[in-house]
Specification:
The complex is a heterodimer of chains A (175) and B (221). Chain A contains eight helices and two strands; from the N terminus they run βααβαααααα. By secondary structure, chain A is mostly helical. A two-stranded antiparallel ribbon of chain A has the order 1-2. Chain B contains eight helices and no strands. The longest helix of chain B has 25 residues, at 55-79. The termini of chain B are far apart. Chain B is mainly α. Residues 196-221 of chain B have low confidence and may be disordered. The chains are: A mainly alpha (175), B mainly alpha (221). Chain A binds chain B through residues 6, 8, 11-12, 15-16, 19-20, 23-24, 27-28, 33, 36-37, 40-41, 44-45, 48-49, 93-94, 97, 106, 109-110, 113-114, 117, 128, 131-133, 137-138, 153-154, 156-157, 160-161, 163-164, 167, 172, 174, and chain B through 5-6, 9-10, 13-15, 40-41, 43-58, 61-62, 64-66, 68-69, 73-74, 77.
Amino acid sequence: MEIKSSDNESFRHVYSEVFPIVMRVAYHVTYNMDVSEDICQEAFIRFYEKNISFRSVDEAKYWLIRVTKNLSINVIKRKSREQAVVEKIKKTPSVTVRNGEEALINEETRLLVRDAVEKLPEKLKSVLVLKEYADLNYKQIAEILHISESNVKVRVHRARKIMESMLDREEMHVS
Amino acid sequence: MCLDDQILNTYLDGELAEPWRTQVAEHLNYCPACNARYEQLRILHKVVSSSRLNEEEIAPYQQKVLKFIENNYVNKRKKIGFIHRNFRVSMPMVLATAAAFVFVLAGAFLFQGKPAGTLGEIIPQVASSTQPGSVVQVRTTEGLASSRFLESYSLEEILQYLDAKGYEVDVRIKGIKPVGTILNQAPFKAPEKTDTPVANEDVDLEASPLEPGQPSEGTAE
C-alpha cells in the first residue's frame, strides 16, 4: 500500500499506527513527556508537510522513527548543556493508572531502568530503545540507523551488559 | 560457561539463524550453567522492556497532537483557495515561456503591415568589408608543377605519355577478363594469349620511364 504523507487518509492511518511507537522512542530517550510530545508533533508535522511517497506503512514508520530519534538525541545533547534547568522541570507520566503492590514494585523498577537507560552512551541507547521500546528487529533497527545488522547485534549486547551492571547495584524486583 | 552472552542475547531476541538456533536450544536443555545465565538475560530484557510507556499514558498525547496538526495543518490546507494556492513551476519552463512570448511580440511589431519589398530595410544587412576585385585565389601547388608526384598523375595521363613514347599498353584489372575470352575458354584452362604483345600484364607504374620532374607535354594541368 503506497503512502503519500500529505494525503489525509494516509496520514491518519500512519498516525494511529505509528504515534505510540514514536512517543515511546522519544520518551525513553528524553524521559520527559512534554518534550516527547513536542518531538512527536514536530516529526508528524514534517511528515505531513514534506509530502513524501512511501512504498509501505513500514517505510513511513521507519522514516518517522528516524526523525523522532534524531530530534530526541538533539534534545538530550542540548539538555546536557542546560542540565541544571532541565532537571527542575523533568516530568514523569502520572502513575494513577496503576494500583496495588505489584504496580508499586513495577514503578520502582521502572525508575531504576529509566536511570540506567539515561546513563547509556548515545549509540547504545538508540539501539536499546528501538529494540526494547519500539519492538523492532535487528534488520529494521539497522535500516533506521543506517548501520549493519551485526553492528546492531553487538550494540544490543553491549547495552544490556551495561544495563545489567547498573541494575545489579540496585535491588531488582522482577515479577 | 559454554555459550557467550552475545549468542544468548541474539537467541533471546529470536534473531539467531539456523542451525545455531536449534543447537543453542538443545544445549540449554542439558547445560544448567548456560540455562541459568539465559534466565538472567531473559529477566533483564523483561524488566527493561516492561518499564515502557504504556498505552494509557500515550493516549491523551496522541489525541492532543493529532488535534493540533489537524487544526493547524490539515484543515488549513483545505481552505486555501485557487488564487492563494502555491504554484510550483520550474525555472527553465518560465524562461522558455518568456522567450517564446518575446519572440512572438517582437515578430508582431517588426513585420506588421510591411510589404515584402521593404523587409530589407528592417532586417539589418551585413556588408562585407572586402572588395571583390582584391580577392585572389591562391593554390599552394601552382608554383611547384615541376615537383608533381607520380600519384598526382591520372591513369589517363600516364597512358597518354606511354603512348607518345611508343609503348603499347594493355590495361587489365586482375581477376576480370575480357568478355570474348571467357566465352571461348574451357573451364580450368589457361587463358589464351592475345595477339598483341603485352609488355606486362598489369600496369607496372614503377617500371614506366616516367620520372618525377619530367612532365610530358601532353599532360595538361
